[in-house]
Write a structure and sequence with these properties.
Length: 242
C-alpha cells in the first residue's frame, strides 16, 4: 500500500468511526438523567423519567394557538381564576408562544409584570408586537435558550406553562432555571392535556398525566400543593418553591 493510500484509508476509518459514534457523542452532551432511543412520530427520541419528549410546536402553529374555539374548549377564563392573579404579582408565562395567555393576564397586572418567555425568536417577535399594544404595559418579552429561561434570580411570584412542559428538550435544566427565578414560596403551575383521558383529542406525547408531572418534579426543590381538574381538557398542577 502506498503512503497516500494508507492516509486515505486512515481518514476513511476515522470518518466512519465518527459517524458511528456521533449518536453517543450527542447523548454524552446530555445530563445522565436523559436516555436516547429511536424517535417515535411525534417525539425527538430523547427520554426523561420514562417519557419521550415531544417535538416543539413551530411558530407556523401560531394560528392554531390563537383559534377562537379555544375559549370554549379550554376555558382560559377559568384558568386565570385558578392562577389566582392579583394586580402586583410578577408572573412568568413560560413558552408563551403567540401570547394567548399573556394577552389575557397582562391587563390584570396593573402594578406587576409579566415575563412572556419563548425559545423561538419568531414567537418573541409576536410577543414584542403584543407588548406594544394598549393595555400591555406589564409584558416583558424574553428570549429563552433551550436550557435557561433567562429571568432575573428571585424575581417571580408565579411561573406557569400552558401546553409547554412536555416539549422542553431539557426539562430538568429549564426547571432549575425557573426555580432560580422564583421567589421563595413562589408558585410553579403546569397546565397539560390529560393523558389519563383517551377522549382528550391531542396526540399522546403532547399530553401528560398528573402522576408523570409529579414524578418529574420529585427530585427538584418544589412541593406539590394541589391539582385542579376544573378545566375541560387540561389539569392544573400547582407546586411551590421550597
Ligand atoms: C404548544 S405551544 C404553547 C404556547 C402557549 N403557551 C399557548 O398555550 O398558546 C409551546 C410553546 O413552548 C415554547 N417552548 C418550547 N421549548 C421552550 C423552552 N425551552 N423555553 C421556552 N419556551 C419553549 C415553544 O416555542 C412554543 O411556543
Amino acid at each position: 500500500m502506498t503512503r497516500r493510500n494508507s492516509v486515505h484509508l486512515t481518514t476513511a476509518i476515522v470518518l466512519s468511526l465518527l459517524v458511528l459514534v456521533r449518536p453517543s457523542i450527542a447523548a454524552a452532551r446530555d445530563a445522565p438523567v436523559y436516555s436516547h432511543a429511536p424517535a417515535s412520530r411525534d417525539g425527538i427520541g430523547k427520554f426523561y423519567a420514562g417519557r419521550e419528549i415531544a417535538h416543539v410546536m413551530g411558530f407556523a402553529g401560531a394560528q392554531w394557538l390563537d383559534r377562537s374555539e379555544r375559549e370554549v374548549e379550554e376555558r382560559p377564563d377559568w384558568l386565570i381564576e385558578e392562577l389566582a392573579i392579583t394586580p402586583a404579582l410578577v408572573v412568568a408565562d413560560i413558552g408563551a408562544g403567540s401570547g394567548y395567555m399573556t394577552r389575557r393576564i397582562a391587563p390584570l397586572l396593573t402594578r406587576g409584570n409579566l415575563y412572556a418567555v419563548d425559545v423561538q425568536p419568531e414567537m418573541v417577535e409576536m410577543l414584542k408586537d403584543l407588548a406594544s399594544q394598549p393595555g400591555m404595559r406589564s409584558v416583558i418579552p424574553t428570549l429563552a435558550t433551550a436550557t435557561d429561561v433567562r429571568l432575573p434570580e428571585g424575581s417571580c411570584d408565579l411561573a406557569f406553562m400552558v401546553d409547554v412542559y412536555h416539549e422542553l428538550k431539557f426539562p430538568r435544566e429549564v426547571m432549575l432555571s425557573i426555580i432560580k427565578a422564583l421567589k421563595p414560596g413562589g408558585r410553579m403551575v403546569f397546565v397539560e392535556y390529560r393523558a389519563e383521558d383517551p377522549a382528550v383529542p391531542i396526540k399522546p406525547l403532547h399530553k401528560m398525566s398528573v402522576a408523570q408531572v409529579r414524578k418529574e418534579m420529585q427530585s427538584l426543590p418544589l412541593v406539590w400543593e394541589k391539582t385542579s381538574e376544573r378545566l375541560p381538557l387540561q389539569h392544573v398542577v400547582v407546586f411551590r418553591k421550597r
